[in-house]
């Protein structure tokens, strides 16, 4: 709370907070940031659960000054203010660096699979999605043919079939629009890989609990005090493809920190599990 209120530059939120032209008074950005970060730290990532905690959790009530924002206000703040929120994490790392909490000698890299809000049934290569579309169109056509051959069907059956046909047509149209507006993904060897219509950035991947549609969440932390310096969700199947771009992002993050320490040339070590191992990465 002290860092949010006294250390961070929150001027990027001024236009949102000091808006007297429309609507009710906005919640102070310091309050919104504190309850959201507190919620995330306690595993509450849903805006509804954070809003509920502000009503009945004494810790959240204390941090928010007993302000109880609606869950839509919390969700809107996260969705609309992401460009203002992202630089705050670099500011926090700058504070950690000033306190000597970042050693820059060894970095540990690890990842986990994160499930996305998308069905894996809507995944496939462009060829597979094209065949799925054709299958849906054939099923829709069979409904019309059945009506034509069985003219005496009751109204109840006709209505049910028409609803099913409408559903099939919408699904086929959804695939058609996706194929027309997206480029096919390719793997490291140039072969086509599966894309997801609902969440094109995600990937179909296997976990210890089965197959999911989701992301590889990769984090890099400094060994001195386990401060996380870089974190990103990648929509690629293997961790091998995420290592080099993650290290590149880490370098960009370190360049934003104390330049005097960055200028101190020394060997930097990385540690990662075998999932990141590949000939390209070893080079």
Task: Write a brief caption for the model.
Helix content is 50%, strand content 15%.
Secondary structure layout plus pairing:
Elements: H1 2-6, H2 14-17, H3 29-41, H4 47-56, H5 58-64, H6 71-80, H7 82-98, E1 106-115, E2 123-124, H8 126-149, H9 155-181, E3 195-196, E4 203-207, E5 210-222, E6 228-234, H10 240-255, H11 259-262, E7 269-272, H12 279-282
Parallel strand pairs: 1-7
Antiparallel strand pairs: 1-5, 2-3, 4-5, 5-6
Question: What does this 3D model show about the protein?
Answer:
Strands 1, 4, 5, 6 and 7 form a 5-stranded mixed sheet that branches. A two-stranded antiparallel sheet has the order 2-3. The mean pLDDT is 85. It is built from 12 helices and 7 strands. Strand 5 (210-222) and strand 6 (228-234) form a beta hairpin. With 283 residues, the protein is α+β, with helices and mostly antiparallel strands. It folds into 3 domains: 1-99; 101-120 and 196-282, no CATH class; 126-183. Residues 195-205 have a biased composition (Polar residues). Residues 6-78 form the Transposase InsH N-terminal domain. It comes from Pseudoalteromonas porphyrae. This is Transposase. Residues 184-205 are annotated as: Disordered.
């Amino acid at each position: 709370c002290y860092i949010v209120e006294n250390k961070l530059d929150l001027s990027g939120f001024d236009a949102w907070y000091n808006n007297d032209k429309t609507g009710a008074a906005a919640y102070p950005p310091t309050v919104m940031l504190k309850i959201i970060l507190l919620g995330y730290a306690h595993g509450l990532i849903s805006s509804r659960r954070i809003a509920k905690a502000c009503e009945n959790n004494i810790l959240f009530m204390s941090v928010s000054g007993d302000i109880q924002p609606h869950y839509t206000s919390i969700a809107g703040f996260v969705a609309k203010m992401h460009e203002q929120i992202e630089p705050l994490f670099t500011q926090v790392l700058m504070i950690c660096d000033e306190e000597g909490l970042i050693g820059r000698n060894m970095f540990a890299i690890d990842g986990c699979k994160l499930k996305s809000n998308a069905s894996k049934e809507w995944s496939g290569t462009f060829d597979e999605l094209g065949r799925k579309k054709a299958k849906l169109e054939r099923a829709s056509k069979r409904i019309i043919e059945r009506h034509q051959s069985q003219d005496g069907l009751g109204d109840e059956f006709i209505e049910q079939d028409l609803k099913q046909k409408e559903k099939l047509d919408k699904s086929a149209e959804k695939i058609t629009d996706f194929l027309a507006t997206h480029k096919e993904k390719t793997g490291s060897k140039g072969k086509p890989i599966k894309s997801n219509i609902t969440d094109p950035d995600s990937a179909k991947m296997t976990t210890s609990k089965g197959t999911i549609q989701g992301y590889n969440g990769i984090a890099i932390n400094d060994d001195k005090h386990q401060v996380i310096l870089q974190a990103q969700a990648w929509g690629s199947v293997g961790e091998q493809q995420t290592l080099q771009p993650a290290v590149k992002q880490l370098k960009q993050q370190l360049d934003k920190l104390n330049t005097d320490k960055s200028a101190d040339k020394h060997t930097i070590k990385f540690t990662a599990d075998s999932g990141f191992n590949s000939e390209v990465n070893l080079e």
